[in-house]
Amino acid sequence: MGEDPTKDAWTSVGDQMKELGGAFKEHYESEEDEGSSTDEVKDALRTVGEGLDRLFTAVGKAIRDPEVKEKAKQTGTSVMDAIGTTLGTVASDVREMVQRKEAPAEEEAEAETEETGSDAEADAMRELDDADAVDEIRSDLDDA
What we know:
Layout: H1 5-33, H2 38-64, H3 66-112, H4 118-143
Helix pairs in contact: 3-4
C-alpha cells in the first residue's frame, strides 16, 4: 500500500464496491440469460421501491416524534462531547510533545532569566478556549 493510510482505505472501499457491482451485474445477466422475463424484473423493482417507500415513511414519522427528537438531540450532544474531549486530549498531547521538544532550549533561556509564569497562563488560556468551543457546540445543539 501507499504512504497515506486514509487514501489507501478509501481506495480499498472503491475497489470492493467495483467488485460487488461486478458480482451483481453477473447475476443479473445470468438471470436474463436463463429467461427471466422483463415483468419479473419490473415486479422485483416495484417490490424494492415499495419497501424503500415504507422505510422512508417510517423515518419521516420517527423524525417528527418528540421522543425520537429528544433521543437524537441527546445522542448528538454525546457525540459532540466525545469529539470535544478527544480534541482536548489531542491538543494536550500535542502541547506536551512540543513542550518536550522545546524543553532543552527553554532550560538554557531559564538559566539566563527568571521564570515569569507566562507559559502557565498561556496554557490555562488555551484550555479555556477548548472548553469554550465545546460549550458553544452544546449551545448550538440545544438551539437546534
